[in-house]
């Protein structure tokens, strides 16, 4: 694994988008891009990327701007889906690949849905980790309770206990996994002070979602706050590539009725469920890695049991 960054540009100047890179170019295996959830970073995919690269894949895991080792933006209004899509498209160009497979957790999956729906998309196969074209308002309210509200910590141990509480639905992580999770989630700006690798200005869902609507639909008036479900069904109907949906059994964000509707609209949807997780499965287990890898190579999940 190596770490690097690309320079992307906005109205305010250039910013860094950091990423980890696993494996090497392989003409027999499409490049894989793994994109994290709203408050997380690229290192959530270390275990999966390590496995996939061991199977011959060339894997890139970016830190979406404002997270991980990427730049923080001066203007909070620039934290929106339009910005993320432009940055991630630049990363796709950086890989040199003509086709890519996309693995997205939560926000990363929403971005994948939008990008896979666009004309001439490079996305060959799409994996959605505990997210679909619809996100219930109740789930958004739950996220709003903690997004951008991480406290300062006096130690990594204190940070670890905090993360155990707010990310409990990721699954039954071992103590070693929680230590690793924490190590990649905090930075120490001054001695004895630890903060999350997440810009606290990323907290306005209205701005992010309004940007999607304006970017693709150009509505005549702005949306009035989070009084609605996120609805990407129009994008979903345009997706042509095969899709694998992963759901945490306790998830309140991706519901069984959403998956049924996804399958009614799209004929190539595969699915498996993670028993001991809610939103969103951490994808740290070997059996999950094997299923994802096999599916990316064209096998049906129903054939893997």
TrEMBL record:
Source organism superkingdom: Bacteria
SUPFAM superfamilies found in the cross-reference section: alpha/beta-Hydrolases
Gene3D superfamilies, A to Z: alpha/beta hydrolase
GO molecular function, one term: hydrolase activity
Pfam families: Abhydrolase_1 (PF00561)
UniProt cross-references to InterPro entries, sorted A to Z: AB_hydrolase_1, AB_hydrolase_fold, AB_hydrolase_sf
Domain AB hydrolase-1 as annotated: residue spans: 30-283
GO cellular component terms given for this protein: membrane
Keywords from the UniProt entry: Acyltransferase, Hydrolase, Transferase
Protein name, UniProt field: Hydrolase/acyltransferase
Species this chain originates from: Legionella drozanskii LLAP-1
